[in-house]
Amino acid sequence: MKFLIVRTDKLGDSLLTLPVAGKLKSHFPESRVYFLSASYTAPIIAKSTFVDEVIASDKTNFFELAEILRRKKIDYAIVARPTLRNALLVYFSGIRYRIGTKYRAYSFLFNKRVAHHRKESKKHEALYNLDLLQPLGINNSNDLNEIKFGLSADVKIQDIVIRKLKKFGVDISKPLVVMHISSGGSAVDWNYFNFKELARYIKTYSDAEILLTGTHKDFLFLYELFFDFDYKIYNLAGEFNLVELFNLYSMVDVYIGNSTGPTHLAAISGCWVISFYPKIKVASQTRWGPITEKRIIFEPEIECSDCTQEQCKRLNCMDSIQVEKVFKEVYGIITKKEWK
């Protein structure tokens, strides 16, 4: 049997869809699982042991892509990214069974429909994705402890990462702290000046090395942010591809970041994750939190109900998260001691 998983948006969304592939492989061990993703997420998705082949959704035009899929003779399409284009794509690809959500204008293009409303954000995105397997007779236990991604560190790639770190002068014998300050803007962020102040605490009271990660586009922003910083830190924005970034995270003591794709990458890698989430229902930790037992999540300390993005920005809710409280958690992780 051949399955196609369709998730063509951002890194975090794609990573949180990998458990669907895991469940398919568990229930249909002889099956072949294809994953249709954006080209920039494809390399890390391809590293999952649950995925047999990744197809980039943005490297060819619609009709050529439909023909590529048609030739695969796929039995089931599971559309975890329900857009009109994706619904039309699996339809014109001649895929016999097309699984998608029920309540969209183009849902008639799916002939196996699942009734759920993600906007209610009552559970995690990964669990919503697993709901889509109901038409295959795979029940969702709604247990995040059962979630698997099929990703693990690679010693050879870790060696490449270590060589890069040493080239920059990073002392890998010291505690390593990653700060990923930028985000895709899908949630309200902890202010970047708070990250800078947190970095100051870390360098003042520990010997940890601070590594800044991001894309090439983030390099100048991070350079300007830390231009007048009193301590040595390492601006590594753009230095690592996603596979290398995953392996970097697997070697550090703690990752610190907002609600963004690399936060999920870090959680899967196995390091400690400290992250910041608003109380907005659709952007909350309930819906988008990192899936790991080694996590510490901070939310605004302001009491509010029915929080919206506009209200959160107006009240500066995220700034109610105190830098010193975050530092105490970081200090405990990197020194194994309690901050006094």
Quick description:
By secondary structure, this protein is of the alpha/beta class. It has two domains: 145 residues, Rossmann fold, CATH 3.40.50; 181 residues, Rossmann fold (3-Layer(aba) Sandwich). The chain contains 14 helices and twelve strands.
Structure description:
The chain has 340 residues and is an alpha/beta fold. It folds into two domains: 2-146, Glycogen Phosphorylase B (Rossmann fold, 3-Layer(aba) Sandwich), CATH 3.40.50.2000; 155-335, 3-Layer(aba) Sandwich (Rossmann fold), CATH 3.40.50. Helix content is 35%, strand content 15%. It is built from 14 helices and twelve strands. It has helices at residues 11-15, 18-27, 42-45, 62-72, 84-92, 125-131, 155-167, 192-205, 219-225, 242-249, 261-269, 285-288, 309-314, 323-335; strands at 2-6, 32-37, 53-56, 76-79, 97-101, 112-114, 176-180, 209-212, 234-235, 254-258, 272-276, 295-298. The strands form two sheets. A six-stranded parallel β-sheet has the order 3-2-1-4-5-6, with helices on both faces. Helix 4 crosses helix 5 (84-92), helix 8 (192-205) crosses helix 14 (323-335) and helix 10 crosses helix 11. The radius of gyration is 21 Å and the shape is globular. The termini are far apart. The model has no long low-confidence stretch (mean pLDDT 94).
